[in-house]
Design a protein that fits this description.
Elements: H1 16-23, H2 30-38, H3 47-57, H4 62-67, H5 70-73, H6 81-102, H7 111-123, E1 129-135, E2 141-149, H8 159-168, E3 173-179, H9 189-205, E4 208-215, E5 226-228
Parallel strand pairs: 3-4
Antiparallel strand pairs: 1-2, 1-3, 4-5
Length: 237
């Protein structure tokens, strides 16, 4: 239930803006951070309470909230068009920051580096999306190329699409990476088959496929949110 106490009626130490100034943004909860974005002009309601209702609607998942459209956000009482646009813009900025980070040409010589680069980009994708990370001889990123935008549980890809991009970028090698929207990063039979086909194609073209990393979400019995098909042994005959 939305309470009637406004933010200005709360003790200063409980107001999100004041807490951010005093303690930094990391000291705030997601609901408090969202409240800062939506509080202006919110009539007869506590912005933090509205923020909590918004998070509850999306299962308290910021990833799910980031995927919501403006129309979906407006279904929450207290979230009008302008506030929905503000939220959508905030999440878009986060994605653009992730893209900007990828332009810094990181060295991608182990799965953790690949996941660090691509986690934010892929976690908000509602369907399986395959990227090829095109690398130079020092395994530094040249650019990332979206190869396939699939369905909820499968990707469709042809070797020509992957290696056309690699040849155009003059890449020496590449890493494949895609997401599992289900959260379980375990490879499917299709993932394994596609990987082996692309390894063989790369051998013919002298462009090595270094790894195929699948990103999901951590679980109680699976602390890592990704798997590396190379580490699982699928790159060895």
């Amino acid at each position: 239930m939305i309470q009637n106490m406004r933010l200005k009626d709360q003790p200063p130490s409980e107001r999100p803006r004041e807490r951010l100034v005093a303690h930094g943004a990391d000291a705030l909860t997601p609901a408090q951070l969202i409240a800062i974005l939506i509080r202006t002009g919110l009539r007869g309601a506590n912005a933090v309470d509205v923020s909590r209702q918004l998070l509850a609607r999306y299962g308290y998942s910021l990833q799910a909230l980031a995927r919501a459209s403006v129309d979906d956000l407006r279904q929450v009482k207290g979230i009008g068009r302008d506030k929905a646009v503000t939220l959508a813009a905030a999440f878009a900025l986060g994605r653009k920051m992730a893209e900007e980070k990828s332009a810094e040409s990181p060295v991608l010589d182990h799965p953790e580096a690949v996941v660090e680069l691509m986690r934010e980009q892929l976690r908000s994708e509602p369907v399986e999306t395959l990227y090829a990370l095109l690398l130079n001889t020092r395994r530094r990123l040249i650019r990332r190329e979206e190869i396939s935008h699939g369905t909820l549980d499968t990707i469709l890809v042809h070797a020509r699409e992957v290696f056309r991009a690699a040849i155009a970028a003059n890449a020496a090698c590449l890493v494949l990476v895609h997401n599992h929207p289900s959260g379980d990063p375990s490879p499917s039979e299709g993932d394994i088959r596609v990987t082996r086909d692309l390894i063989r194609a790369g051998q013919l073209l002298k462009i090595e496929v270094l790894d195929h990393v699948i990103i999901g979400r951590p679980a109680a019995d699976r602390p890592k949110d990704y798997v590396s098909l190379r580490e699982l042994g699928y790159f060895y005959s």
